């Protein structure tokens, strides 16, 4: 529904949001403006070790399993000892996000000017999502305002700086590329998880449905869908190839950005 100039969605989408903790404590933790030393006689603990353990829990078991108790178990310490270093789960979650976003490579020189740089950025984000699939459950609208997120955004913007785009267009281009990668990675993760969740491979699923589909589907009524679906199925040995979707889509996204840049050059 419309609320003035803003669209309000009443349907609830299940996602995780960063920034739900105390802003002052979260920012202090993100930028490490204060950190308490480990207590004497306890196993050595610090923020980095706690964050790494939390990321390992999320990677192995998903965000639904993440809790201060579960992180403490992984570290072999009591739950309350974590609160010496981390105010709570919301603040810990913010630092987890900022930490994994620091994993993307940021080489100063990438072959292929802006297009090569954006291609590299897209592939770094693609790999990041596949390493940490739980990132796909996190809303991008409120990123943690930490040093790694800030450095990542600055690096990505520099790929399209000085090529004739306005500042807003630069931001929009990066949003377009990273948004495309987010969607493509979600498809890849869902496809990878399908067998373990359903107990069937793609081949087994199609084999089970094919006899019934052949009775219902009418090639004469749906000629284009029948022809294209058969071609795609033969090419991918499945209804969908996440890798092909990523490669094909990325090239088309970059083509569109190139068209924008060329249009700006001819109009200036």
From TrEMBL:
HTH tetR-type domain boundaries: 44-104
Gene3D superfamilies, A to Z: Homeodomain-like (1.10.10.60), Tetracycline Repressor, domain 2 (1.10.357.10)
Keyword Transcription: yes
InterPro entries (alphabetical): Homeodomain-like_sf (IPR009057), HTH-type_TetR-like_transc_reg (IPR050109), HTH_TetR (IPR001647), Repressor_TetR_C (IPR004111), Tet_transcr_reg_TetR-rel_C_sf (IPR036271)
Keyword DNA-binding: yes
Top-rank taxon: Bacteria
DNA-binding region(s) from the entry: 67-86
Keyword tags: DNA-binding, Transcription, Transcription regulation
Name assigned to this protein: TetR/AcrR family transcriptional regulator
Organism: Nonomuraea maheshkhaliensis
Lineage: Bacteria, Bacillati, Actinomycetota, Actinomycetes, Streptosporangiales
């Amino acid at each position: 529904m419309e609320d003035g100039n803003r669209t309000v969605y009443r349907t609830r989408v299940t996602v995780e949001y960063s920034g739900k903790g105390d802003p002052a404590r979260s920012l202090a933790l993100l930028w490490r403006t204060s950190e308490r030393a480990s207590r004497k006689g306890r196993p050595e603990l610090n923020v980095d070790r706690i964050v790494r353990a939390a990321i390992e829990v999320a990677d192995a078991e998903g965000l639904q399993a993440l809790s201060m108790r579960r992180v403490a178990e992984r570290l072999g310490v009591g739950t309350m000892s974590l609160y010496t270093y981390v105010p709570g789960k919301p603040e810990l979650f913010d630092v987890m996000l900022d930490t994994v976003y620091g994993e993307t490579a940021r080489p100063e020189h990438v072959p292929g000017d802006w297009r090569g740089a954006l291609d590299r950025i897209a592939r770094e984000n693609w790999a990041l999502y596949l390493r940490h699939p739980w990132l796909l459950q996190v809303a991008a609208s409120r990123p943690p305002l930490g040093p790694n997120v800030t450095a990542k955004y600055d690096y990505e913007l520099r790929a399209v700086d000085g090529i004739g785009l306005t500042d807003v267009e630069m931001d929009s281009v990066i949003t377009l590329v990273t948004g495309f990668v987010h969607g493509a990675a979600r498809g890849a993760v869902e496809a990878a998880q399908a067998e373990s969740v359903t107990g069937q491979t793609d081949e087994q699923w199609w084999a089970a449905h094919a006899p019934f589909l052949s009775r219902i589907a009418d090639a004469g009524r749906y000629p284009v869908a029948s022809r294209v679906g058969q071609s795609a199925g033969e090419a991918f040995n499945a209804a969908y190839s996440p890798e092909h979707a990523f490669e094909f889509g990325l090239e088309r996204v970059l083509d569109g950005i190139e068209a924008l840049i060329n249009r700006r050059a001819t109009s200036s």
